[in-house]
Amino acid sequence: MDILVTGGAGYIGSHMCKYLSRNGYRPIVLDNLSRGHQQAVKWGPFFQGNISDGELLDHIFTSYDIKAVMHFAGYISVGESVELPGLYYSNNVAETIGLLNKVVEHNVQNFIFSSSAAIFGEPIQDALTETHPAKPINPYGKGKLMVEHIINDYDYAHGLNAVCLRYFNAAGADPEGEIGEVHQPETHLVPLILQTALGIRKEIVVFGDDYPTKDGTCIRDYIHINDLAQAHLRALERLLQGRGSEAFNLGNGHGYSVNEVIDVARRVTRKSIAVRVGERRDGDAAVLISSSEKAIRELWWEPQYADLESIVETAWNWHRKHPNGFGD
Predict the structure, then answer these.
(1) Which among 102, 149, 252, 291 is placed 20 to 30 Å from 130, CA to CA?
(2) Mind spelling out the 3-state secondary structure of 68-118?
(3) Total domain count for the chain?
(4) Residue 203: CB partners within 8 Å, gap ≥ 6?
């Protein structure tokens, strides 16, 4: 069964492609390579281009029997979105509308959207459920929420069945070490810490240590990349069974502060990791922790990497063997 994976050359998309292939599906990858890596495309046909390229999408949809679209193509840096909101609204919102129009035109009825916990903004409860008020505090989160609303409208108007998956912090790497996390520039905490352990960076910068948390640093919920892929597969199966549109939060339900993540990385790598405290970043919430009870209950999702140490271990296995990313 053919599944179109937009952003399939990126971090989450490439892991999803491997997981789909292992489970009997053929991923068809569409990625403009502005932030993805062609070396990560190993499990299906690849097309280089934008998700709003109508002619290219027509070719893909007529050449393959696409049963569903998994949409990962989007920019992901909160800080960059604050500095360049136009870039984020153009790429993450406007381009997605172009994709959705072609999905409807070609009568593809199943759509899975890579959303984010950033839609919630500052939490008003310890563990965020799907019913938590959505009040994003940065353009990245606002764009993700806009697309969720747009998808709901397409469902109402065109019968597009969709699942929106709100990730907390994706981390880790393929347990077999075949692919891993590579961004240019890198903005995610775990790879930044591991690059410091490898000597690629001289220090890890902690953005603020005066938040209202146990040690003053931001607290986040980390979810292994393969557990994310498993959730997407469960969501796909749900759609193919005709069970209708829904939204799910995806995390491990446990928060770790930035300082705690650094301490775990020190234990895993057995390296000293230099730290410098910097200014807070605009748009960062103090605490984001998921309640994933709905996904566990309704998607029959069973996360395999529940502790941060095992997540960091898979990431370390990738980074120490590929210190320069896919350039080795």
Answers:
(1) 102
(2) EEEECCCCCCHHHHHHCHHHHHHHHHHHHHHHHHHHHHCCCCEEEEEEEHH
(3) 2
(4) 196, 274, 275, 276
Helix (H, G, I), strand (E, B) or coil at 252: coil
Looking at the chain, list the stretches that DSSP marks H as alpha helix, in order from N- to C-terminal side. 11-22, 54-63, 78-83, 85-88, 95-105, 139-158, 189-197, 225-240, 258-269, 293-298, 308-321
Q: Which of 19, 25, 140, 211 does the annotation list as catalytic?
A: 140
Give the chain's mean pLDDT. 93
pLDDT (tens digit, 9 = 90+) per residue, 310-327?
Answer: 999 999 999 999 888 876
Residue whose token pair is 């410098």: 276
Q: Which of 164, 312, 178, 191 is nearest to 252 (CA)?
A: 312
* Same domain for 160 and 226: yes
Known catalytic residue at 156: no
Write out the residue range of the structural domain in which residue 295 sits.
Answer: 189-220+253-327
